[in-house]
From TrEMBL:
UniProt-recorded name of the protein: StAR-related lipid transfer protein 4 isoform X2
Protein's UniProt keywords contain Ribosomal protein: no
InterPro entries the UniProt entry points to: StAR-like, StarD4, START-like_dom_sf, START_lipid-bd_dom
SUPFAM superfamilies the UniProt entry points to: Bet v1-like
Any GO MF annotation of the entry: cholesterol binding
Pfam family, one: START
Native species: Tursiops truncatus (Atlantic bottle-nosed dolphin)
Keyword Zinc carried by entry: no
UniProt KW keywords: Lipid-binding
Domain START, residue spans: 1-110
Record gene name: STARD4
GO cellular component terms given for this protein: cytosol; endoplasmic reticulum
GO process terms (BP): cholesterol import; cholesterol transport involved in cholesterol storage; intracellular cholesterol transport
Length: 110
């Protein structure tokens, strides 16, 4: 899977590109998805190649409320490049907040 991110914090953090192997299976009546970045020689010059260490997401239905699920994610991303740590912390926090907000909106429509 190849995906990109837009620049963050007024492009203090340049756009990033990731190439990951991802695998998803059924897990306890829900889903387990895991992945890791691959060394891929083809690069686009407008992006900095980031790297995802082994990561995973578990999505399992709640026993007390079958119409709801618990999503747990484990991620360790190396954005690479010269970036101040405070900028990374700020960008990652806002990116995750946006991700969960967008996911919640998409699921409410489904």
């Amino acid at each position: 899977m190849r995906y990109t991110t837009a620049g963050q914090l007024w492009n203090i953090i340049s756009p990033r590109e990731f190439v990951d192997f991802s695998y998803t299976v059924d897990y306890k009546e829900g889903l387990l998805s895991c992945g890791i970045s691959l060394d891929w020689s083809e690069k686009r010059s407008e992006f900095v190649r980031g790297y995802n260490h082994p990561c995973g997401w578990f999505c399992v239905p709640l026993k007390d409320s079958p119409n709801r699920s618990l999503l747990t994610g484990y991620i360790q991303t190396d954005l690479r490049g010269m970036i101040p740590q405070s900028a990374v912390d700020t960008a990652m926090a806002s990116t995750l907040i946006n991700f969960y907000g967008d996911l919640q909106k998409a699921l409410q429509k489904a």
